[in-house]
Write a structure and sequence with these properties.
The complex is a heterodimer of chains A (about 400) and B (about 350). With about 400 residues, chain A is α/β, with parallel strands linked by helices. Chain A folds into 2 domains: about 220 residues, Aldehyde Dehydrogenase, Chain A, domain 1; about 180 residues, Aldehyde Dehydrogenase, Chain A, domain 2 (3-Layer(aba) Sandwich). In chain A, about 45% of the residues lie in helices and about 20% in strands. Chain A has a 7-stranded mixed beta sheet, with helices on both faces. Chain A has a 7-stranded mixed beta sheet with strand order 11-12-13-10-9-14-15, sandwiched between helices. In chain A, helix 2 packs antiparallel against helix 4 and helix 12 packs across helix 13. The longest helix of chain A has 22 residues. Chain A is globular and about 70 Å long. In chain B, helix 1 packs across helix 2 and helix 7 packs parallel to helix 9. In chain B, strands 1, 4, 5, 6, 7, 8, 9, 10, 11, 12, 13 and 14 form a 12-stranded mixed beta sheet that branches. Chain B has a two-stranded antiparallel ribbon with strand order 2-3. Chain B is built from 9 helices and 14 strands. In chain B, about 45% of the residues are buried. The chains are: A alpha/beta (about 400), B alpha/beta (about 350). Chains A and B meet through helix 10, helix 14 and strand 11 of A and helix 2 and strand 1 of B.
């Protein structure tokens, strides 16, 4: 039984050997919460990700680099260690991460936070990982040369086929299992028991959407409107609109007459932004979109379907309470108009995750969250930040999840 | 005695004449399917296509992506009139489901027969099938490969399987077939890859005389390209090694059952029967490409009367090389390969596919 090593070295490794390394404490000092040896390593990685050459090639790695920069990591470490001298955060131990196959950078966020929390980590990297994911693995490999040997000893990334035996062994050995990748992977992974003291952090299928306040838009300056549309374009086109936090529908909130004018302007600006950024979709994606959008039309979910080139499709939802369930392809904006945020709140389901918004006051959004009443919605962010990773994700404060609290005299 | 370069009755129309005949029939089919197939009507209505739209050319007609028949039930006949449901599983996912009434079923089989007669002649020929009878036993492979073989079997007689149950060449059976039928015209049928891998090799080694054969074959060249065999080489090798010169590749799909695009006698190019046509589209602008420029193949046919499959955008890439300048009139084209499937990159894609 072997696995393919991706970090810190390359090559085949026996499962037994891997488990022996993962369950043994390193020589010398074990990792602590916010361990300086890990912080140094993350800072080194961040520097390399932010290098102009890398950032040009993979813009998403620049956001990752920004997330891992020393000041940010130090801030997270301080927050994690906490101020209460009688509550001491300690690492969980061994964390097994199963990131999604196709979102190139999620594995790094998940792993980096867990490493910062002082855990030993084993990350399953998809064999399909390419492009940005490969670039990250190269950066990690370059950075580990300068790092304390504890990093190479405790942080492992591996690839293996659909091999239940490896999954079962890692599940049995770990103290915490982190499952990304939607309902199917959660269900599949849960077949493999954990040790009694261990637990799961799971990220099942979610859906996200955008809110555009009609009166807020009308009050905004030209520059603010353009910035908002640019942000929305980012939210839509990153990860081919297939991430769980990618907006799958746009709700215009306001009276019908005003809303149509705002939508026209929004559409014009969005087409311009897409053109300016040079986003394109290839022929395969263009066909995929047609198949899915014609399908939505055949099912009666859509009243208007308009293609602004292959890159961008607009559709009008027949019923605002029935947003599209699945992915419709990259660059698809289903639109519905509603009178108020209260109308949107009614359609939120448990799987609702990210709401990105423009044109609302904080108080209006607070009221909206209260109206949803906990049925869904984990985060409300401005246009442009739907895909920005945050240490609180899907309602989990990951750094807290990745540690335990030991109380002193408590 | 007809020479092989004579124009057969189903490959007879020059391009302008063909379009003049096809256009009103296809417009009428569009209206008919809109009236009888609500999901189809919803698609066109959503796209803003008026019910009484006027069309100047076949290329203006709205098309459906062929994969719609995998994701949706699209038929223009009441359940009670469904005579036959054809299914084909591609390599992945759901099968297409094609609904025929009695009339559509009869029309497709007679159209196919006329098309085949143009290269096989009016009589059924003894038939060597380059496949194994085991395909009828495995229910899973039956739908695709078995149906193809079964469909062709009606154009032959005295059928002999060239492969044994393990899929290996049955040399004794082939030899016996040739001894009995080899001195008069006979039909050879199989999938391109199997014909090359299993028949060609054996025929060359054993110096079989296939000079009276007519080979009809179908299936992509992708597997053969890996072995550096292209269509020209395929023909040359067969002619040199076995004397087999009458070779016709064909292109077709279950979503337009009965419509078969056939390779002309001099080889290398496919032609459209009189009741069908191809339009090669630019996948960026969706406009028709001029001859010589590759794009996505749209297939049009007047046969689909019981389901809205008369104008379909395939996921095959192809190129029209010329018009009214080949063995037969109309468009002369080749299929270049398949468009890859777009892959969702989402968080919810996942573990299952990670291997």
């Amino acid at each position: 039984m072997t696995v393919t090593m991706r970090f810190p070295d390359r090559g085949e490794r026996s499962l037994a050997d891997l488990l022996a390394q993962l369950t043994a404490d390193p020589d010398g000092k074990p990792l602590a919460v916010g361990d300086p040896r890990i912080r140094d390593f993350l800072a080194e990685v961040a520097g390399r990700l932010l290098a102009p050459k890398m950032a040009r090639r993979y813009p998403e790695l620049a956001s990752l680099g920004f997330f891992l920069r020393r000041a940010e990591v130090d801030r997270m470490a301080r927050r994690l260690i906490g101020e209460d001298p009688l509550v001491i955060r300690v690492p969980r131990g061994l964390v097994f991460h199963v990131p999604p196959a196709n979102v190139d950078t999620v594995f790094v966020y998940s792993w980096a936070l867990s490493a910062l929390a002082g855990n030993r980590n084993v990350v399953r990297i998809s064999s399909r990982a390419a492009g940005a994911a490969e670039a990250i693995l190269d950066v990690l490999a370059e950075s580990v040369a300068q790092a304390d040997p504890v990093v190479a000893h405790t942080q492992l990334m591996i690839t293996y086929g659909r091999d239940d035996e490896v999954t079962a062994a890692l599940s049995a050995a770990c103290d915490l299992r982190v499952i990304w990748g939607g309902d199917r992977s959660v269900t599949e992974l849960r077949r493999h028991p954990l040790a009694p003291l261990a637990r799961d952090v799971v990220f099942p299928d979610r859906s996200s959407f955008a809110l555009l306040g009609v009166s807020g838009w009308r009050r905004a300056s030209d520059a603010q409107r353009r910035a908002a549309v640019d942000g929305f374009a980012n939210d839509v086109y990153w990860f081919d609109q297939a991430a769980c936090s990618s907006p799958r529908a746009l709700y215009l909130v306001g009276p019908p007459g005003d809303a149509e004018g705002v939508l026209d302007e929004f559409r014009g600006l969005l087409a311009e932004a897409v053109r300016r950024r040079g986003w394109t979709v290839d022929a395969a994606m263009a066909v995929e979109k047609r198949v899915r959008l014609y399908g939505a039309a055949a099912d009666g979910h859509v009243t208007d379907l308009e293609f602004a080139g292959n890159e961008l499709a607009w559709l009008r939802l027949a019923d605002p309470t029935q947003p599209p369930r699945g992915w419709l392809g990259a660059g698809v904006v289903p639109v519905a108009r509603v009178d108020s945020l209260a109308d949107v709140a009614k359609v939120i389901q448990r799987r609702g995750q990210t709401v990105s918004d423009f044109g609302f006051a904080l108080d209006e959004l607070r009221e909206f969250i209260a109206a949803v009443g906990g049925r869904g919605i984990d985060r409300v962010v401005p246009f442009g930040q739907a895909l920005s990773f945050a240490p609180v994700w899907d309602g989990y404060d990951l750094l807290t999840e990745f540690t335990r609290a030991t109380t002193l005299r408590g | 005695m007809a020479g092989i370069l004579d124009v057969p009755d189903v490959f007879s129309l020059a391009q302008s004449e063909k379009e003049k005949r096809l256009l009103p029939e296809l417009v009428e089919l569009t209206a008919r399917h809109r009236a009888a197939c609500p999901p189809y009507d919803r698609i066109l209505a959503t796209l803003g296509v008026p019910k009484n739209a006027r069309y100047q050319s076949v290329a203006e007609l709205p098309w459906l992506p062929v994969r719609m028949f995998k994701t949706h039930t699209l038929k223009s006949i009441p359940d009670a009139e469904v005579f036959k449901v054809l299914t084909s599983s591609g390599t992945t996912g759901e099968p297409s489901r094609i609904y025929l009434d009695r009339q559509a079923a009869a029309a497709q089989s007679s159209a196919l027969a006329r098309t085949m007669r143009s290269v096989l002649g009016p009589h059924r020929l003894p038939m060597l099938i380059v496949d194994t009878r085991a395909i009828f036993k495995d229910r899973r492979s039956f739908s695709a490969r078995g149906a193809g073989v079964l469909g062709m079997m009606s154009y032959g007689r005295d059928h002999v399987w060239a492969l044994d149950e393990q899929g290996q060449p049955d040399v004794a059976a082939i030899e016996e077939f040739l001894a009995r039928h080899g001195d008069a015209p006979f039909l050879i049928f199989g999938f391109t890859f199997m014909v090359w891998l299993h028949l060609y090799e054996v025929a060359r080694e054993r110096r079989f005389d296939l000079s009276n054969g007519v080979l009809v074959h179908s299936g992509g060249w992708k597997k053969l390209a890996d072995r550096a065999v292209d269509p020209a080489e395929f023909r040359r090798e067969f002619a040199d090694a076995t004397g087999l010169k009458r070779i016709h590749n064909f292109y077709g799909m279950v979503e337009q059952i009965g419509t078969v695009y056939l390779e002309g006698p001099s080889g290398g190019y496919l032609y459209c029967p009189d009741f069908a046509d191809v339009i090669v589209r630019d996948p960026e602008t969706w406009q028709e490409q001029p001859p010589g420029v590759p794009g996505l193949i749209e297939v049009v046919s007047t046969l689909p009367t019981s389901y809205p499959g008369h104008v379909l955008l395939t996921e095959d890439l192809g190129v029209v090389h010329g018009i009214d300048d080949g063995d037969w009139p109309g468009k002369r084209f080749t299929v270049l390969g398949r468009l890859p499937r777009a892959e969702a990159r989402g968080c919810s894609d996942a573990y299952g596919g990670a291997a």
